[in-house]
Write a sequence for this structure.
C-alpha cells in the first residue's frame, strides 16, 4: 500500500537523532567552522552514544554501516537499516554536515566496508574508524584513471601513490584506498584495501583549507611502499575484466543515498530558519493560495520547499529499494543529483532572501550556503550523476555516452 | 443580406452545430463573435428526480495504515492501473488525432471507459462505487495512467466521476440519492466541476462568482466560470461560488436551469476536453443545491483537484520521456546518435529525475488524503513540481526533436500545449 511517510517504527529514533543534532551538532556548528582543523572533542561522547545505540539495537541499524544489504528474509515490505541511516544522517546534517562527517567510526570508509566486506572482514574491522581514499591529484570523477598501485608480494600488497580529499583522513584509524592491481587491465583491476594508519608507509601529508564543512578534516595521504596484509583487500581479489567496475562501484549505490540525506538535512536547516526570519518580517507563506498571488519571497520559498520535497522522497525511495533488495543504482543517482543541486540552490537562495542578515556570521545561513557546495561534488559530482542516469535511462554504454 | 442573416448563415455552416446537437430551431443559439465563440444554453438535463435521502450521508472511511514506507500499490490498484494503462494505449492514443480535430472526446470512448468503472473509483461501495475506503491514491494512479495516453481525453473521461466524488464526499443523503445513481448506472451523464474563472491571478479561495441567499430559501448564482470540461455536454455542474458570509462553497446546478449559458472556449491545449465557460446570470436554485459539507471542506476540494491535475501531468511527462528516448537514440547528427552527446543526454537525465520527484510528491499528497491526514502542504508542493517540471519536460521534449518537434508529425507539440495547463487549472477534476 502506497505510503510515503516516515515509517512509524523510526519516529522515536528520528526524534532522538534530532535532539542529538540540536545539542551536539548545531550547538557547536559555528565554533568548529571558525576553528578549522581543531578536533571536535564533543563528538567523542556522542560517538559512544551512537555505538551504544547500535549495539543495543535502539539505533535501528542506522549509521555508516547501515548500508550493508540484508540477507534474504521473506517477502514482506521492509523498512530497514538503509532507511534508518538516511533518516538519521538527514537529522544530524540538519545539525551540521561537517560534524556529521567527523563522527568517529561513521566514515564513508565504514560504509564501503559494510557494502563489500566479507563477514570475516566485517568482524575484523569492527570498531575501526575508516575514511575513504579515491581521488588523486590527477583524477577526480574519472576514478577509473587512478594511478595508485597495489603490487602483490607474498601475502601482502605493496601500495604506492598519493590520495587527496580524504575526509577524516587525519582522525580515522584506517583508510579504504582504491588502487589498481594492473593499470593495463583497466577498471576491473581497481580494488579497495583497508589500510590501517598504524602501518609503516602511510602518512598524512597535509590538511586542506576549505570553503565549507570546515569541522571535517580533509587530508592528503601518501602511500610509500605501504605493505598491506592481503586479507585487507575488500571483495574478490581476482580481476574479472568482464565485470568491469562492479565490485568497488557497488559502494556508491549505498553511499549516494547517504550523501543525498546530508543535502536533504542541510537544505531543511536553511529552509526552516529562512521561514522563521521571513515570517518575522511579515511574509505569509500559504500552501493553498496560488503562489503567484503571494509575495515573491513566499513564491520563492514554496518553489524551494517543493524541490526539497522531491529530493527528500527520492532519497527515501533509494533507501527503501536497498532495504527491499531491489537494484537502485538509478534511484541512488537520481537522489544524489536532485538533493545535491537542490541543497546548493536552496541554501544560496535563502541567503539572498534574508539579505545581509543571512550573509552575516550572526546567522548560520551563510555557513550552510558554503557547506552545501561540496554535497553537489563528492561521491560523484552532479555531472557524473547525470551521466549515470542518462546511461541507464537511455540504455547506453559508457563507450557510447562518454 | 442583412447583418443578422449573415451571422445566421455562418452559424448554419459550422460543423460544430452538429456535434453540439444544436440544429433544432427551438434551441437558443447566439453568435457573439470570435472572442467568445458559441454561446448556447446548457445541455438538456435528464431531469434528476429528487430522491429524499435517509439519515446521514454515506462517507468513505479513512484508509488503514501499516505505518510502513511503501511504494507498492495494492493488488486492486495495480489491477485497475493495468487495465486503464491498456485502455490508454489501445483506445485513447489511437483516438487522439480525431479528438484534437473535433475539439471533443469521441462518444464511444465514454462507453468503454465507464465499463471499466472510471466514474466509480472515488465512490464508496455503499454509494454504488468501487472504493472500500477513501482512495485518492487510486484516483491519482488512474489519472496518471490515462494521462499517459492523452491529458485532454483523460480530463473528459474523468470529469463526471469527479462530480460524483464531490457529491459523495460533501453532499447530504438526498443529494447522494438524487444524483449518484446516474453516475453508477450505464448511462453516465457528462458533468463538470467548475471552479476556475477567466482572469489573471485567479484565487480559488476567492471566487467572484457569487451565491446570494434569497428570502424564503435558495440562492441566486452570478458569475463566469472557465476551464469547464465539456461544458456544452454537461447535464450537471458543481460550481464554486462565494456565499453571503464571504466563504466559498460548492453548489449543484442542473444544466437546464434558466440563466445558464455555455460558451465554447477552445484553448492552447486539452483540445479533447472541449473546454468551455459557464456563464451564470441570475441562476436561481433551491437551498438544497448547496453541498453542505463543502463549506468546511472547500479547501480539500481545491487540493484534491490539484492532485488530479498533477497526476495527469505525471502521465503526460512520462509520455514525453517514452517518446524522446528512442528518438534521440535513432536521430543522427555529426555521424552518431544525438543521445551520445552529453548536452542531449543530460536533458533526458534531468527529465527522468524531475519526473520521478514530481510523481513521488503527488502520490504522497494523495496517500495522505486517504489516511485522513493534512495534505495541504503536500498537494501544494506536488502542484509546484508538476507545474515547473511538467512544463520543463514539455518544452524540452519539443527541443530534443528540433524542428520536427514543432510540427504535428510528432506528438511532443501536443504534450507541450497540454502540460501548460497544470499550473493554470483549478477544479475540474478530483481524485
Amino acid at each position: 500500500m502506497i505510503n510515503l511517510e516516515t515509517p512509524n517504527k523510526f519516529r522515536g529514533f528520528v526524534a532522538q537523532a534530532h535532539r542529538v543534532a540540536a545539542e551536539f551538532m548545531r550547538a557547536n556548528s559555528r565554533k568548529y567552522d571558525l576553528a578549522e582543523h581543531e578536533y571536535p572533542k564533543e563528538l567523542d561522547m556522542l560517538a559512544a552514544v551512537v555505538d551504544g545505540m547500535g549495539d543495543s539495537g535502539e539505533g535501528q541499524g542506522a549509521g555508516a554501516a547501515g548500508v550493508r544489504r540484508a540477507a534474504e528474509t521473506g517477502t514482506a515490505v521492509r523498512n530497514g537499516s538503509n532507511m534508518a541511516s538516511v533518516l538519521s544522517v538527514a537529522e544530524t546534517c540538519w545539525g551540521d554536515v561537517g560534524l556529521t562527517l567527523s563522527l568517529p567510526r561513521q566514515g564513508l570508509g565504514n560504509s564501503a566496508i559494510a557494502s563489500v566486506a566479507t563477514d570475516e572482514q566485517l568482524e575484523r574491522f569492527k570498531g575501526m574508524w575508516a575514511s575513504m581514499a579515491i581521488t588523486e591529484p590527477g583524477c577526480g570523477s574519472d576514478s577509473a584513471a587512478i594511478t595508485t598501485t597495489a603490487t602483490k608480494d607474498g601475502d601482502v600488497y605493496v601500495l604506492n601513490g598519493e590520495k587527496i580529499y580524504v575526509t577524516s583522513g587525519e582522525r580515522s584509524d584506517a583508510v579504504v584506498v582504491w588502487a589498481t592491481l594492473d593499470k593495463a587491465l583497466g577498471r576491473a583491476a581497481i580494488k579497495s584495501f583497508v589500510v590501517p594508519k598504524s602501518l609503516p608507509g602511510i602518512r598524512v601529508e597535509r590538511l586542506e583549507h576549505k570553503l565549507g564543512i570546515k569541522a571535517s578534516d580533509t587530508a592528503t595521504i601518501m602511500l610509500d611502499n605501504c605493505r598491506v596484509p592481503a586479507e585487507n583487500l575488500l571483495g574478490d581479489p581476482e580481476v574479472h575484466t568482464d565485470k568491469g567496475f562492479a565490485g568497488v562501484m557497488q559502494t556508491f549505490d549505498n553511499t549516494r543515498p547517504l550523501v543525498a540525506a546530508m543535502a536533504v538535512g542541510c537544505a531543511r536547516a536553511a529552509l526552516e530558519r529562512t521561514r522563521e526570519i521571513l515570517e518575522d518580517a511579515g511574509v505569509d507563506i500559504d500552501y493553498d493560495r496560488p503562489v503567484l498571488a503571494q509575495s515573491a519571497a513566499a513564491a520563492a520559498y514554496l518553489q524551494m520547499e517543493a524541490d526539497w520535497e522531491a529530493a527528500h522522497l527520492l532519497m527515501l525511495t533509494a533507501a527503501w529499494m536497498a532495504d527491499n533488495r531491489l537494484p537502485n543504482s538509478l534511484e541512488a543517482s537520481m537522489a544524489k543529483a536532485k538533493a545535491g543541486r537542490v541543497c546548493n540552490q536552496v541554501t544560496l537562495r535563502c541567503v539572498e532572501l534574508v539579505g545581509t542578515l543571512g550573509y552575516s556570521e550572526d546567522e548560520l545561513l551563510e555557513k550552510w550556503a558554503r557547506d552545501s557546495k561540496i554535497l553537489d561534488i563528492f561521491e560523484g559530482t552532479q555531472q557524473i550523476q547525470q551521466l549515470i542516469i542518462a546511461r541507464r535511462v537511455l540504455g547506453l554504454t559508457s563507450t557510447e555516452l562518454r | 443580406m442583412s447583418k443578422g442573416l449573415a451571422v445566421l448563415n455562418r452559424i448554419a455552416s459550422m460543423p460544430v452545430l452538429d456535434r453540439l446537437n444544436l440544429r433544432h430551431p427551438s434551441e437558443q443559439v447566439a453568435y457573439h463573435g470570435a472572442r467568445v465563440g458559441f454561446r448556447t444554453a446548457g445541455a438538456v438535463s435528464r431531469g434528476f428526480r429528487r430522491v429524499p435521502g435517509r439519515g446521514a450521508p454515506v462517507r468513505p472511511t479513512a484508509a488503514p495504515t501499516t505505518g510502513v514506507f511503501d511504494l507498492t500499490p495494492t493488488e486492486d490498484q495495480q489491477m485497475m492501473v493495468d487495465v486503464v494503462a491498456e485502455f490508454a494505449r489501445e483506445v485513447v492514443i489511437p483516438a487522439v488525432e480525431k479528438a484534437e480535430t473535433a475539439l471533443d472526446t469521441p462518444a464511444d470512448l465514454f462507453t468503454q471507459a465507464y465499463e471499466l468503472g472510471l466514474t466509480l473509483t472515488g465512490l464508496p461501495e455503499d454509494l454504488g462505487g468501487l472504493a472500500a475506503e477513501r482512495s485518492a491514491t487510486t484516483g491519482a494512479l488512474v489519472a496518471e495512467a490515462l494521462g499517459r495516453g492523452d491529458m485532454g481525453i483523460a480530463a473528459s473521461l474523468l470529469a463526471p466521476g469527479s462530480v460524483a466524488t464531490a457529491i459523495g464526499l460533501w453532499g447530504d443523503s438526498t443529494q447522494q440519492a438524487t444524483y449518484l445513481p446516474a453516475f453508477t448506472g450505464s448511462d453516465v451523464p457528462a458533468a463538470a466541476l467548475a471552479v476556475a474563472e477567466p482572469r489573471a491571478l485567479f484565487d480559488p479561495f476567492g471566487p467572484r462568482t457569487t451565491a446570494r441567499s434569497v428570502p424564503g430559501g435558495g440562492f441566486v448564482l452570478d458569475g463566469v466560470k472557465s476551464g469547464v470540461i465539456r461544458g456544452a455536454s454537461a447535464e450537471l455542474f458543481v460550481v464554486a461560488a462565494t456565499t453571503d458570509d464571504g466563504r466559498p462553497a460548492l453548489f449543484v446546478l442542473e444544466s437546464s436551469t434558466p440563466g445558464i449559458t455555455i460558451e465554447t472556449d477552445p484553448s492552447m491545449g486539452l483540445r479533447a476536453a472541449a473546454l468551455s465557460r459557464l456563464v451564470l446570470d441570475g441562476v436561481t436554485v433551491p437551498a438544497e443545491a448547496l453541498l453542505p459539507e463543502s463549506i468546511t471542506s472547500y479547501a480539500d476540494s481545491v487540493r484534491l483537484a490539484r492532485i488530479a491535475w498533477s497526476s495527469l501531468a505525471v502521465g503526460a511527462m512520462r509520455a514525453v520521456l517514452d517518446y524522446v528516448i528512442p528518438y534521440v537514440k535513432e536521430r543522427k547528427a555529426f555521424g552518431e546518435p544525438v543521445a551520445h552527446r552529453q548536452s542531449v543526454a543530460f536533458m533526458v537525465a534531468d527529465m527522468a529525475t524531475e519526473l520521478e520527484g514530481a510523481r513521488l510528491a503527488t502520490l504522497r499528497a494523495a496517500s495522505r488524503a486517504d489516511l485522513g491526514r493534512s495534505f495541504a502542504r503536500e498537494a501544494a508542493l506536488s502542484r509546484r513540481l508538476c507545474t515547473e517540471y511538467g512544463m520543463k519536460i514539455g518544452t524540452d521534449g519539443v527541443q530534443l526533436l528540433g524542428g520536427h518537434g514543432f510540427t504535428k508529425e510528432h506528438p511532443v507539440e501536443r504534450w507541450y500545449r497540454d502540460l501548460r495547463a497544470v499550473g493554470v487549472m483549478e477544479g475540474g477534476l478530483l481524485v
Summary: Residues 1-12, 19-36 of chain B have pLDDT under 50 and may be disordered. The first strand of chain B starts at residue 29 and ends at 31.
